[in-house]
Amino acid sequence: MTSKNMELDSVWLILAAVVGAYAFLFGFLKKINEWYYVIRLGKKKHSSLPPGDMGWPFVGNMISFLRAFRSQDPDSFINNLVRRYGRTGIYRTSLFGNPSVIVCSPELSRKILTDDERFEVGYPSSLTKLIGKKSLHGVSNSEHRRLRKLLVPGINGHEALSMYIGYIQDIVISSLEEWAHNSSPIEFLTEWKKISFNVITKIFIGSADSISQSMTDHYGVMLEGAFSPLPIDVPGFPFHRALEARKILVNAIQPHLDERRYKNGDDRNTEKGMIDLLLEAKDEDGEELENELIVNLLLGFLIAGHETTALVALWLTIYLHDHPQTLQKAKEEQVEILKRRPPSQKGLILNEIRQMEYLSKAIDETIRLCGIPLAIFRKAKDDAEVDGSRTCPGADLSKIEMSIFMHYFLLNYRFERINPKSPVKFPAGSPMDNCVARISKLP
After folding, report:
1. Which is nearest to 403 in space by CA: 339, 442, 438, 358?
2. Residue 437: which H helix or E strand, with range?
3. How far is CA 133 from CA 41, 227, 246, 279, in A?
4. How far is CA 295 from CA 251, 253, 261, 274, 279, in A?
5. Handedness of CA 385, 389, 391, 396 (dihedral sign)
6. By C-alpha distance, which of 316, 435, 299, 411 is closest to 372?
């Protein structure tokens, strides 16, 4: 054997040893982590756990989870579980620094999300720090129901929705006119966020101009940091940037809260919003709600109200234009509404929106397909056997917003997407180019 061959053999032996050591270490560390979480439960509880694995120490399966959701195949994380453990619909894992159970079948999800007695809201600590412990996500079930009872009439009540329609119409009509007169294409998602931002700040703060549009950038930073593999509050890390963004947002809301709280009723801004309703509310002991709770409630609604509505509206528009027959049926429904309208009536009314049955189904189907939330978190109060509630307070308002937009859009405008094959970024679920499109007026 020549010295050259011996050198090659040595290199291969070293490589084989490195690969073998890596494989051993990989398997050993994962096994240690599995033992740490599972054996502590005891033999009886261990045997009743769903299939799965706990991943690496400290980070669990967060790296593979985020890699999947930031790829062009976000379902790959779940598909890998199905491939390894079968189509059980329920798997054990470790995510966001906690031992977790993933439930992904409709039947099991429905049971858990409607069982408030055994499953309470249980968001990871990283998300709780960003959303706030005192918020709709962190309060008890009884307090959550009380707050919903207080908030929902001001958002989804018949009188409230009727009052908002005129304002939403004004924003939609002026926005569409501006887009159509723009000489260059627009970022459809970015522009839609402006619409929903104006609507939600008007409703909750009382004025669309009271919070700067630049605040929307901070929402994005905060949401991005919420899903970092390691929630480390050190400069340079996404989670630290998210916490800083939260501070900026809180500082933007706080002055409006202070101004309303310390002025007498006659001196308060005549344009009232949800903030005034919260200031007038009392807790179970008859005390005013704490500033922290009010700020967190407003912050949560502002984030959810403008981000999710814009994303659903984006995909609704894309899906309709990708399916011409569906687009035509939706348009015909809007034409029929115009035909039935008395000549003296100016603009849409709530009863007309309630008659948009076909469009309503299209919106519901878009919500189903988009799957806007990355995940919905619950925490088991006790050991629970699952064999096989809380709804969004602003759901009706969001659908009203989209219905008004689609009414004017379908009747008067044409949509042309510039980059129809633009990749989709996850977990946001939006086109990489924010859907660059040209909006033109129909002849």
Report:
1. 358
2. strand 436-441
3. 28, 17, 13, 19
4. 10, 7, 12, 11, 11
5. positive
6. 316
Q: What are 166's two structure tokens?
A: 């005129």
Task: Give the C-alpha distances (Å, rounded to integers) separating 7 from 12, 18, 19, 21, 29.
Answer: 9, 17, 18, 21, 33
* Residue of higher predicted confidence among 105 and 440: 440
Tens of pLDDT along 200-237? 877 777 665 555 656 767 777 877 776 666 678 888 88
CATH topology of domain 154-441: Cytochrome p450 (1.10.630)
The stretch 345-364 carries a mean pLDDT of: 93
Contact between 401 and 284 under an 8 Å Cβ cutoff? The reply is no
The Cα 113–Cα 122 span in angstroms is 12
| One-letter amino acid for residue 245 of the chain | A
Q: Are 399 and 360 within 8 A, CB to CB?
A: yes
- The neighbour count for residue 52, using CB atoms within 10 Å, is 20
* Residue that has been written with the tokens 């979480």 in this structure: 37
Amino acid at position 405, single letter: F
Q: What is the DSSP string of 175-203?
A: HHHHHHT-SS-EEHHHHHHHHHHHHHHHH
pLDDT in tens, 295-334: 887 777 776 666 788 889 999 999 999 999 999 999 999 9
Give whole-number Cα distances, 336 to 236, 349, 411, 442, in Å: 56, 14, 11, 18
Q: What residues does CATH 1.10.630.10 cover in the chain?
A: 154-441
What is the rounded distance in angstroms from the CA atom of residue 359 to the CA atom of residue 331? 9
* DSSP reduced 3-state for 416: strand
Per-residue confidence (pLDDT) for residue 77, from 0 to 100: 87
Structure tokens at 66: 């985020």
